[in-house]
Sequence to fold (202 residues):
Amino acid sequence: MNFNKAEFKFACGTSSQLPDSTKPEIIFSGRSNVGKSSLINKLTNRKTLAKTSSKPGKTGTINFFEVDNFHLVDLPGYGYAKVSKYEKQRWSELMEGYFAQDRKFCLVVQLVDMRHKPTSDDIAMIDFLNTYGFPYIVVLTKMDKLKKSERAKNLIMIGETLKEFEGIKLFEFSAQTGEGADSIINTIKMYVENYLTEYEGE
Fold:
């Protein structure tokens, strides 16, 4: 399972454009500008595989990347207030259409900015995943922007905010240093291997 062989495959702006689900899907979810593209690039050891932007709300498509025997799926970010009403409706249709399909959902990597308390949108997304039984982990991004003492304090604060979700798994991550990437990669590999063994007999 070689993350370095990741290739861009599809970009979908509406649910009708979604490709058939042929491999286990590792899904990246989070608010606009939380660092999804940066995480994907670090995990795959590529600088520009997933396009990064300093402008939140710019990515409006679901992007698929192929990695050996599974797909990475980059969802458009949520929670950007300046997006038009039309764009919000399109985003809602796209997200609902994606999660309503019979797909090979393997793991959702839910990103939360470690510098701040999880937003109401973050909590709503985690609640959705929890309620409908999607396997997920929470990656806390931008840890390098905090002092060590602040990291420890914020980790406790975030854990307390999300305490209603029993057994939640938190991973700290820095796109700048790569700290935490190995743990996330090993977790993804475990979920993919378990999925293939359980559902496809590999």
User: Anything to note?
Assistant: The mean pLDDT is 90. Residues 3-200 form a domain with the Rossmann fold fold (CATH 3.40.50.300). The first strand starts at residue 7 and ends at 12. The CA atoms of residues 14 and 90 lie 7 Å apart.
